[in-house]
From TrEMBL:
Domain (HD/PDEase) ranges: 22-137
Pfam families named in the record: HD
SUPFAM superfamilies for the chain: HD-domain/PDEase-like (SSF109604)
Superkingdom as given in the UniProt entry: Bacteria
Official protein name in the record: Phosphohydrolase
Length: 217
């Protein structure tokens, strides 16, 4: 019961914080990540579902894109965690999961717990498939990035600076990041969930280029 209350309180806080966001980090994104993470936890029968749910709900709170800077985002997460009645160990664990799972921050670095692996998988699943396609263009549009521009070269390796400057297009983002995510997943359950999402993106890109190149039927 206590745990249910804490989850409800966290949910209310996150809804209020992210409600207005239109960059693909809205409440519904968070809710999908929470549900996928709990599903993976359940199928794999591993990880603490309470920690997973808290970390999934809070994972975008410190995101630099939603805060004035990285420090104020960190501060926001910390103050919220201080305000709920959970053990210090649980607070530290949730904080650590959120610190390590981001694509940029977490890229290549070992995750410290199965809970972190599961929340990261759930967040990555929401960046691929039909939802991933929608989010890529919503984000690109918000950044003023074109849908596609064939004169921009697709590059496998982009520096963090270049990535932040968004020298890219919505379509480029698939080659720079989205198509690679399936091979970076941690759990078998997420890998299975990624299959149809990957097919969806591949079909989409194939059709996109056919239309771009003037297919008439
Ligand atoms: P997450 O919420 O998974 O941590 P990000 O914060 O990196 O992901 O981005 C949010 C959404 O916007 C994701 O679906 C991501 O693929 C998309 N996105 C991020 N950067 C770009 C970009 N340069 N162009 C198009 N889409 C992007
Ligand atoms: Ni996210």
């Amino acid at each position: 019961m206590m745990k249910d209350n804490i989850i409800q309180q966290t949910e209310d806080y996150v809804r209020q914080q992210l409600g207005e966001d239109a960059t693909g980090h809205d409440w519904f994104h968070v809710d999908r990540v929470r549900r996928s993470a709990l599903h993976i936890c359940n199928v794999e029968q591993s990880g603490d579902p309470f920690i997973i749910e808290l970390a999934a709900l809070l994972h975008d709170i410190p995101d630099e894109k939603l805060n004035e800077n990285a420090e104020s985002g960190q501060q926001k997460l910390e103050s919220f965690l201080q305000s709920i009645p959970i053990s210090n160990k649980a607070k530290e664990h949730v904080q650590q999961i959120i610190d390590t799972i981001s694509y940029k921050g977490g890229n290549g670095c070992e995750l410290a717990s199965v809970e972190a692996e599961i929340v990261q998988d759930a967040d990555r699943l929401d960046a691929i498939g039909a939802i991933g396609i929608a989010r890529a263009f919503a984000y690109g549009g918000k950044k003023g990035q074109p849908i596609y521009n064939p004169t921009i070269q697709v590059r496998e390796e982009m520096s963090l600076e270049e990535y932040r400057k968004g020298k890219s297009t919505g379509i480029h983002h698939f080659y720079e990041k989205l198509l690679k995510l399936k091979d970076l997943l941690n759990t078998e359950t997420a890998r299975k969930m990624a299959e149809s999402r990957q097919n969806m993106m591949e079909t989409f890109l194939e059709q996109f280029f056919q239309e771009w190149n003037g297919k008439t039927i």
